[in-house]
Amino acid sequence: KIYEVKMHEAYECKTVLQKLPLHIESIDAYDEKLVVGTRQGNLLIYEVKSNGIGLEESDSSVQLVKSNKFFSKKPIIQVKVVPEQEILISLSDGVVNVHDLGGASMPLISSVKNSKGALVFSTNINTEISLTGEKAAVIRLVVAVKRKLQLYYWKSREFKELGPELLLPDTPRSIEWNDESICVGIRGEYLLLRTNGDKKELFFTGRIPEPTVSSLSDGRFVLSKDDMSIFVGPDGISFEEKVKWKEPPSSVVEDSPYLVGVLPDSLEVHSFEPWIQIQSVEAIKVKHLCSVTGKRGVLFAASPSQIWRLTSIPVHVQLPALMSEKLFGLATKLATMSDEPPEVLKNQIQRIQSIQAFDFFCQRNFKDAMTLFLQLETDPSHVIGLYPDLLPESYRSKIQYPEELPFLQGKDLENALAALIEYLTEIRRSLQGNVKSLSGPSPGSEGTHGVKTKKQLLQIIDTTLLKCYLKTNDALIASLLRLKDNYCHLEETEQVLIRYSKWGELVILYQNKGLHRKALELLKEQALKSPDLPLGNHMRTVSYLQQLGCENLDLILEFSDWVLCAHPSEGLKIFTEDVQEVEYLPRGKILDYLMRLHPHLVLPYLEHVIYSWEDTSTLFHNKLAIGYIDRITRLAIGNQPGFLSDFVGLSPIPDSEEFKSMCSSPSSVTSLTSASDSSPLIEYKRRFQFLIETSSYCSWEAVLTHIPKDVLQEERAFILGRLGRHKEALSIFVNTLNDLQGAEKYCSREYVASSNGKDVYVILLKFLLDLKDGSDGQSYLEEALRLVDSAGHRIRPEMALSLLPDGVPVEHLREYLIQALNSCGSERNLMTLLRGLLQADFLVLKHQKSSIESTKIFLKETNLCCLCQKKFTNQSAFVRLPKGLLMHYSCHQQSIQQ
After folding, report:
1. pLDDT, the chain, mean
2. Were both Cys, which of 283, 378, 412, 551 would link to 440 (CB 3.0–4.6 Å)?
3. Which residues does 691 contact at the CB level (< 8 Å), separation at least 6?
C-alpha cells in the first residue's frame, strides 16, 4: 500500500567527528562508546555524550578514551563489541581476533582457530537463564572463509568449534545469524542455511553490486534486491511487506520502529507497518552505519573521514506529526518506547488507539473500529454516540469527538449497525461476568461525559440493541426482551415500540418489567378492537394470565372476566391449564369467583380439579355433587337456563364396561351411555353417577340432604349404598323404581365391594317375599325363587329357608338345595384338607423343636454377649440365636423392644 504523507523528522543528525586524519573502515557502538577501526590499523574508542536535542542546545561532547595505533598492521575490516563479556571481535588481515575491551590498549585474548583467510563474520548473542537462576550470554560466531562457514561458541575466554563447516557454492559477501538460521549473500543470490546443514536458495540479488543482509530483533532477515528490501523469516519464507528505497541501499540497520538505509548521498528512514518513508538525511559518501548495542534511538553513520550521530527525536515531539498524518500504528509503537511513567504511558497509548478507532469508523471500517473499541474497553455510550438516533440528544450532545461524525445511510448504515450489534453483544457478555463498569478512553477529548455505573451501561446497551434490531432484524427484538437480565430503559423502549407498532414486543417488555396491568390492558384493547390485529386473539390473554402465579391472583380474576364472558371454553383454561403456575393457584378463591360471576363454569372447573389434578378436598367433591344435583333438578323440572344446553369445558370421564356394570340396569346404562348422550339431563346424570362410584372424599350424608324427594331416586340409592344403608337403597329399587334387575345388580356390586354387604341378597329376598300384587294378593314368590336359584351361593341356606313360605314345594328349591348341599360338602372337604395340612405342619415343627432342644450348648468364660460384648455370669439367663450366637436374655428382650 502506498502512503502519501508529509515527512517529519524522526532523527536529529549531528557531526561528532570530521576531517579525521585516518581512513575509517569499520564502526560499532555500545553504551556511550563508539569503536572505530581504520584502514591504517588503528583502533579508536570515543565516548560520545549527548547534551540534548534541538538547535538551542549544545552539541554532543566527544572524547577519545582509548587508542591503539598498533592494533593491526592491516586494515580493520570489521569490529563487533560484546559488552556482556567485555570483548571486542575484529577482522583484520584475514584473521578474526578477540581482544579485551577492558584493557587500556585492548590486548589480544585469542585468535579464532582456522579463521585464516576470513572475509566476514557475524555473531549471534542470546541470554539464557542457568539452573541457579543467573543470566548468562551465549555467544556464537560464524566466520566466512573462502567458500565455507565456520561455526564457533564462546567458552573459557576463547571461541571453540561448534560443529562441522558449512559449504557454499560461492564466496560469501554478507552474512547474518539469527537463532538457528544463517542468511548468506553471495554473488547474484541469497542462501539460507540451518546449523544442522540444511540449505535453501532464496532469490537473486538483482541489479545491486553487492548483496546486503541485515537482521531484525524479531528474528527476520532484511535482504536487498534492486531498490527494495525484502523480509525473510528464519524458515526462508518471504513476507509480503517490502521497503522501497530511492536507490539500492548499501547497508540497512534496524532502530525500531524504523529502518534506516544507507544510500549514495543520503540516509533514508522508513517505518514498519505502515511501510512508508519518514525522513531523508543528506549525508555524502556514507559507507558505514551501526546502532548502539542494547540501546534504541541512537545510530552512528560514517564516511571515510567523518562520523555523524543520529539521535531519535523525543516521542512527545513526533506524536503530533504522526497523529496529524493518521499514522496511528506508528504512533502507538513510538509511545510504547517512551520514558514516561507506566500509568501516563498507558493513558497515552489508549488515547492514540481510541482516536485510531474513531478514524476507522470515519473511514467506514466499522468492524476494525468496534474491535479496537472493545480492546480499549471504551465507554459504550461514546461508541453508540457515533450513530444517529440511538442516544437521547440531550445525552449525546455532551460527548465530544475529534472530528465531525460521518453521515451514514444505505449500505453504510446497515454495515455500521451490524458491527455495533456485534460490539454491544460482546460488551454485554463481558459486563454480565464483570461487576466493574467499563471506563476506558472515549474517542473524544478529555473529560467527555461518560457512564459511571454498570446498571447505566447495561441500560444503554440493551436499549441500543433494541433500536438496532428495529432497523436491521426485528425478529430478534422479542428474544432480547425475554432475557431475564434485560435492562432496556422502560420509557424510551416503550416509546420506540409504540412508534413502530410492535405491540407483541411491547407486551413482552411490560411482562419482563412486571407491569402486568399495562400488558393485560393492551392485550384486551387489541383483542376487543379487531381480531385481525397482531394481538387480536384472546388466547394471548389466556396464555399471559396462566403465567402470572398466585401473587397476581387479583389481576388474573380481573382480566379473566372478559375472556370468560366472550370465550368461556378457552377462558376456563386460565384456571385449568396443566402448568405449575395455574395448578398452584388458590382453588377456593377461584371457585368462589366462578360461583359469583360465572356459575356455568363451576362444574367444568371442579371436574378438572378432581379428575385431572386429583384434588381430595371434601369441599370440592361436595360442591361438584351438589352442582350436579342442582343442574339435573333444573333440567328435570324444565327450569333450564340457556347455558345448560352447552357442556362448556366439561372434562371427559371414563366410559368403561366397569362403570356400565355399576349402573342400575341395562336400559339405564343404554340411556346413559349411547343414543341419548346428547341430552343434557342424561349427560349430567351419567357424570353424577360416576362421581358417586369413584369419589371417596365426598361427604355423602351432607350431599343426600340436597337431593329433592321426587328426582334422582337411583342416585339416592347409590349414595345410600355408599353409606352402608342397603335396606333403604334396595327399598328404593324395589318399592319406588320397581326395578328388580337394578336391585340385583346393586346386590351383586355391594356383595363384592362392601364389607357390610354380605347380607344384601337376604334383604332383597325379604323385600320380594313381602311384596304383594295389587290384583290377587299373590306374593312375588317366583321372583324370589329365581333370585334364590341365581344367587343361591351368596345366600346362607338357613336364612333362605327361614324366609321362604312353608308351602313352597321342595321341587321348586331342588336346584338351590343341591347347590347348597354341594357348597356345604365342598366347604367341609376343604376344612378337612386344611386340618390335615395344619396337623402335618404341627408334627414337623414338633420334631424341629425336639431336635433344637436336644442340642448341647457349651458356655465358656471367654464367650461374650453378641450385643453388649460382656461375659456371662453363673446366674445369667441367656438366649441362643439360630446362627449359634449367644446373648443375655435381658439384651435379647431389649433388642426385641427396639
Report:
1. 85
2. 378
3. 610, 621, 624, 625, 628, 698
